[in-house]
Write a structure and sequence with these properties.
Layout lengths: L6 H16 L6 H13 L2 H5 L1 H14 L7 H6 L8 H16 L5 H14 L10
Helix pairs in contact: 1-4, 1-6, 2-6, 6-7
Length: 129
């Protein structure tokens, strides 16, 4: 059995999803809902609390409404996840967010690839290499 992600890992997963929602400059309600559903499906909302988790998402999404993001800080937050099950969760959460609004833009694909590369995952979830 795989242990649930730590609180810090969960917050990194949320941050990853929030930055993905902002990759095209316009976070959409469907992207927030997709992340929320993903977290619920993996029991992370119940474990760490919806208010705390989605509050972090909302802070990032609210402050990152611009066409070009500096992804370095977001990617740096993922370093502690390398080699863990949480790395897969972060990449998969980002893919769910990228696909949520029905349009996957080049910026989103580029961020998915950057996440995959930073986390040393073989291929981007739901996106062919």
């Amino acid at each position: 059995m795989i242990a649930p992600p730590s609180r810090a890992a969960t917050l990194a997963i949320i941050s990853c999803g929030a930055h993905m929602a902002c990759a095209d400059g316009q976070p959409q309600p469907a992207e927030r809902s997709a992340l929320l559903a993903f977290l619920r499906r993996h029991d992370l909302l119940a474990l760490y609390g919806r208010r705390t988790i989605m509050g972090l998402y909302d802070r990032i999404a609210g402050s990152s409404r611009r066409a070009v993001l500096c992804w370095r800080d977001a990617l740096d937050e993922l370093d502690p996840l390398i080699g863990t099950h949480s790395a897969t969760l972060a990449a998969t959460a980002a893919a769910h967010v990228a696909l949520a609004d029905g349009i996957t833009l080049p910026q989103e694909l580029a961020l998915l690839r950057a996440i995959r590369d930073r986390l040393r995952i073989g291929s981007s979830p739901a996106v062919p290499s």
